[in-house]
Design goal:
Blueprint lengths: L23 H91 L1
């Protein structure tokens, strides 16, 4: 069973001696760090691009929503005007009928007094 314990003979200030065949390891590490740095930079650029696209999409959605609201507002105003006109006609009709009924009642009351 392999031991995962740290080697007590190596301190944090000392470098681990590398055998001659392991001289390629620093180059491989350097290449790996360069690759990871490149990937991080590309990820940053991708995030910035996605953020710009999202902002543009939100702006488009906002503009469309404002147009839709303006259209709905315009339609609502027209509907309210139509309802108002119909209500005014209905009130005028009811007023005329009430006046006619009142006149009829007045005439009937007058004719009863005369008889």
């Amino acid at each position: 069973m392999a031991s995962n314990r740290a080697n007590p003979s190596i301190s944090l200030n000392n470098q681990v001696p590398l055998p001659p065949e392991d001289r390629e390891v620093p180059a491989a590490l350097s290449m790996m760090i360069d690759s990871m740095t490149s990937m991080v930079e590309r990820a940053k650029i991708d995030i910035e691009n996605a953020d710009q696209r999202a902002r543009a999409d939100l702006e488009n959605i906002d503009q469309r929503a404002r147009k839709d609201i303006a259209l709905l507002d315009q339609r609502a105003r027209k509907d309210i005007q139509k309802i108002d006109q119909k209500a005014r006609k209905d009130i005028a009709f009811l007023d005329k009928r009430a006046r006619d009924d009142h006149e009829l009642i007045r005439k009937n009351a007058q004719s009863r007094r005369l008889n």
